From TrEMBL:
Catalytic activity: NAD(+) + ATP = ADP + NADP(+) + H(+)
Pfam families per record: NAD_kinase, NAD_kinase_C
Compartment(s): Cytoplasm
Gene: nadK
InterPro entries: ATP-NAD_kinase_N, ATP-NAD_kinase_PpnK-typ_C, NAD/diacylglycerol_kinase_sf, NADK
A single cellular component GO annotation: cytoplasm
Keyword entries, A-Z: ATP-binding, Cytoplasm, Kinase, NAD, NADP, Nucleotide-binding, Transferase
GO molecular function: ATP binding; metal ion binding; NAD binding; NAD+ kinase activity
Signal peptide per UniProt: none
Any one of the GO BP annotations: NADP+ biosynthetic process
Cofactor: a divalent metal cation
EC number(s) from the headed UniProt entry: 2.7.1.23
Name assigned to this protein: NAD kinase
Residues of the active site: 48 (proton acceptor)
Length: 268
């Protein structure tokens, strides 16, 4: 990657602002160029949330753009570089163009009960559906077949890289990011003699899709990563692995399970 166009997305923490200034100077002193509108590389400076924001800013250019995360707080899942390694990072941009990795994304399509046009989103971590403070009732199908009738607080549908985020908090499994599949986890399902769901998270293959057919059409909160979409009149939501993937540049290999251990367990 010699002389590439770089965009920087940072959060408002003073450390991130200072790191962004240093990084901009280093990039301009090398053969690279800052280009916020038409970048080949997007660098996020902050935490996982900043990388999620960067992804949503540039998710219409996924075939042209690679991402890279610098963390200014604790080690993140999408942020491989530390704030004191900026010289090394700029150097690696010039030399290590082979080192990239890509991860699956979640394709979300919402259809409406009132005939409104479908809406389409991409999620890097997950999408959730909840119904205000009332019970959500939905038929869940895998491909064409009804799988279960769900009653409860809601559902979380996550990517492998999102499996360590909200999914983990609702009892989902942590998936290695090389697995090309998505996970459906229940949020407080109602299980008794009348209503019955599987009660455990399921991992759905990349050639399959999940349809969540809602029984009432109002009061739903749908999230796509950090965004909440308050939609009225939803009919159904379809989930599958997207055709697009997110590409990370200058990827530094850290054993995935070491990262999980480092983040959630720590030293004995
Ligand atoms: P935020 O700033 O509150 O971030 C929440 C935490 O999630 C941060 O510590 C962040 O580092 C971590 N995180 C984000 N993506 C991760 C990933 N893939 N693996 C492990 N940890 C990850 O919120 P935000 O910045 O707006 O980020 C939105 C994300 O936060 C959502 O996509 C969701 O996954 C997560 N979240 C989690 C919970 C929960 O666990 N109960 C609740 C709300 C949101």
């Amino acid at each position: 990657m010699k002389g590439i166009r770089v965009a920087i997305v940072h959060n408002q923490e003073s450390k991130s602002v200072e790191v962004t200034k240093r990084l901009t100077t280093l990039l301009e002193q090398s053969e690279n160029k800052i280009d916020q509108d038409n970048p080949e590389l997007v660098i996020s400076v902050g935490g996982d949330g900043t990388l999620l924001s960067a992804f949503h800013l540039y998710n219409h250019k996924l075939d042209q753009v690679q991402f890279l995360g610098v963390h200014t707080g604790h080690l993140g899942f999408y942020t491989d570089w530390r704030d004191y390694e900026l010289e090394e990072l700029v150097e690696s941009l010039c030399n290590d163009h082979q080192k990239s990795v890509s991860y699956p994304l979640l394709d979300v399509r919402i259809t409406y009960a009132n005939g409104k046009s479908d809406k389409h989103f991409l999620a890097l971590n997950e999408s959730t559906i909840k119904r205000g403070n009332r019970t959500m009732v939905a038929d869940i199908s895998i491909k064409e077949d009804l799988f279960e009738k769900f009653r409860g607080d809601g559902l979380s549908i996550s990517t492998p890289t999102g499996s360590t985020a909200y999914n983990k908090s609702v009892g989902g499994a942590v998936l290695h990011p090389s697995i090309n599949a998505f996970q459906l986890a229940e949020i407080a399902s109602l299980n008794n003699r009348v209503f019955r769901t599987l009660g455990s998270p399921i991992v759905v293959g990349h050639h399959e899709w999940v349809k969540v057919q809602l029984q009432q059409s109002t009061d739903y909160l749908v999230t796509i990563d950090q965004f909440t979409i308050e939609q009225e009149e939803i009919d159904a939501i379809y989930y599958r692995i997207a055709d697009e993937r997110i590409h990370f540049a200058s990827y530094r290999h850290m054993h995935f399970w070491n990262r999980v251990k480092d983040s959630f367990i720590g030293e004995e």
